[in-house]
Amino acid sequence: MRHPAGSSGSRGVARSAPFLLLSIRGEDEAADDEYRAMMRFAGVDTAGMHRIRLTHEPLGRIDLADYSGVILGGGPYNVSDLADAKSQTQRRAEAELLDLLARIVDEDFPFLGCCYGVGTLGSVIGARIDRTYPEPVGGVSVTVTAEGRDDDLFADVPDVFDAYGGHKEGASSLPAEAVRLASSPDCPVQAFRVGRNVYATQFHPELDLDGLITRINVYKNHGYFPPESAESLKTAARQWDVRYPPKILKRFADKYARRG
Asked: Which ranges carry the Glutamine amidotransferase domain (predicted)?
């Protein structure tokens, strides 16, 4: 059983149970930037967000009662990758994640999956995950659905807002029990919810301009875009007003933070 850092704090001092961030980024620069962004926009510190880098260690047995919620970051993995193209680390991490997500869905435990969350959570609930609706790295215009307008996580964003994304796979269809919360012109499923507390977004709620530039630098040779286009992508990204996605992450943290 994993116990979050700082969970054995001083007696008599009530603390919020931390969130658990699961990372699939093997590159230190991108992984650490993601962690800092998640904490900053969620309004917590390292005591409030425990991280497990699945590229560096097995997940182990997670006691969900130790945490306020689970957040899954994005990265270079795709569940739709051909089996023989997946590294041993990806196969192990993916198997662990799908097992944990099955428990999370079964218990309706607070979860927010960012980008890779659509593929993993979608696979668990029977969504069609494929490469029909990829989007290039950069800005995307996200439209909130009528159902999303009634969802607590989207309460602080307008009907249409700018976000950053970039993905090879997505959900081309959702099962009846999933609620579609947002879409974009080139990707019909930008966010969805299962039950009352389990969420996935295709866009990155933790990503601002500085974070996107970091990821462009780190992943320019990972097949998301021609390496020689990196600087033009950075220039184009500056034209987008990405102020609202972090509010979704903050809403998730505020809604589910509980006393430990």
From this structure: 63-208
